[in-house]
Amino acid sequence: MGEHYLSFEDIQLKCEQLSDEYTIDEEKFYRIVEKWADEEVSTDTKLLASFSELLQVVSTEITCMEEHVQLESTCRLGCAFCCYFPIIINEMEAKLMVKSIENFPEDRRKKLEVHLVKYYEKHGEQLQPMMELDFEEDKNFKLKYRKSLIPCPLLNTDTNQCMAYEVRPIPCRTYVNYTDPKVCSDNLMPKETISFEFLYSEYMGALNEFLQFLYEEEGDTGFISYPDNLYKHDYLANWLR
């Protein structure tokens, strides 16, 4: 007998159950920035630590939701079909990612730097028209981008692993499959997959409140230009270029 997977209808029912029964613990997010606001460390350290811990809370919250409705992800190491979607983030997140990568151990950071140079050399020409897709007005931009089969700049296509996994953006960590993994290999945009991207509002709300506190109370937002960096959005591939 083959392995049994949840159907699309099963997944929909569990999502409805989540919506009816589960309440996101917003305090989990705000406790982190409140803790770091009181630490006697540099502003840059506060920002990077808050960023890292908030991302982890997003992942933890997803686990809590999965346990509540008995969902188990079928995503596996080496499966990277979702790493061919366009990722849109704001400039503040991009700066937090880049600064975090700069703090990677030297060998790992240099390996990623070399990878990015080769990535843009290989995909730059094909990537350019994709970067010009209007992600705010074009309702089909995701499908158009997905059809290009251009991998994420952070994907090591030899191992199918993210080279900055712990600081990957919210869309990456909130996109999950709970049915037959073949739906991802057989469909550019499978309907069966789930996005928990609604957690972005809790994550970004806490980050924004922290930056606002630093801006108004301490007059120091480190390497972030607040609030300007909050409102400018672009493709991850453009931020990392």
Written account of the structure:
The protein has one domain (8-79, 88-114, 168-239). Strand 2 (155-156) and strand 3 (161-162) form a beta hairpin. The mean pLDDT is 96. With 241 residues, it is mainly α. Helix 2 (26-37) packs antiparallel against helix 3 (43-69), helix 2 (26-37) runs parallel beside helix 9 and helix 3 (43-69) runs antiparallel to helix 9 (200-218). It is 56% helix and 6% strand. It is globular.
Which keywords apply here?
56% helix, two-stranded antiparallel sheet, globular, 241 residues, 6 strands, 11 helices, mainly alpha
SSE blueprint:
Layout lengths: L7 H14 L4 H12 L5 H27 L18 E3 H12 L3 H26 L9 H7 L7 E2 L4 E2 L7 H4 L1 E2 L5 H5 L7 E2 L4 H19 L9 H4 L1 E3 H4 L2
Antiparallel strand pairs: 1-6, 2-3, 4-5
Helix pairs in contact: 2-3, 2-9, 3-9
Work out the number of β strands.
Answer: 6
- Structural domain count: 1
Average pLDDT, all residues: 96
**What is the makeup of the main sheet?**
2 strands, antiparallel
Q: Briefly, what is this?
A:
The protein has 241 residues and is mainly alpha-helical. The protein has one domain (8-79, 88-114, 168-239). The chain has eleven helices and six strands.
